[in-house]
């Protein structure tokens, strides 16, 4: 079953440095696919959205490391 928002995907700004990400993968002896940077960036967006929500639920306007 498809997710509700699949047909309305919004382009997100890339939040990771692609060359740094590729360097980490390469240093482990692996290659990275073309979609890896975008996928990692989307995970970061989701992680930040959850942290922002948690901070708000705790009555704070400051997102802290423990919100992650």
Structure description:
With 68 residues, this protein is mainly α. The protein has helices at residues 18-27, 36-57. The longest helix has 22 residues, at 36-57. It is elongated. It starts with 17 loop residues before the first helix and ends in an 11-residue tail after the last helix. 0% of the residues are buried. The model has no long low-confidence stretch (mean pLDDT 90).
Number of strands: 0
Shape: elongated
Give the structural class.
mainly alpha
SSE string, helix = H, strand = E?
HH
- Strand proportion, as a percent range, falls in under 5%
Measure the end-to-end span: 29 Å
Q: Please state the CA-atom Rg, rounded to the nearest Å.
A: 15 Å
Largest sheet: none
Summed over residues and divided by their number, the pLDDT gives a mean of 90
Summarize this structure as a short list of keywords or feature phrases.
elongated; single chain; 2 helices; 68 residues; 47% helix; mainly alpha
Task: Summarize the model shown.
By secondary structure, the protein is an all-alpha fold. Helix content is about 45%, strand content about 0%.
Task: Note the topology.
Layout: H1 18-27, H2 36-57
């Amino acid at each position: 079953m498809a997710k509700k928002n699949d047909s309305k995907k919004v382009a997100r700004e890339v939040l990771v440095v692609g060359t740094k990400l590729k360097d980490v993968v390469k240093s482990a002896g692996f290659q990275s696919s073309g979609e890896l940077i975008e996928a990692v960036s989307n995970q970061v967006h989701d992680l930040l959205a959850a942290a922002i929500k948690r901070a708000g639920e705790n009555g704070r306007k400051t997102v802290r490391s423990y919100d992650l």
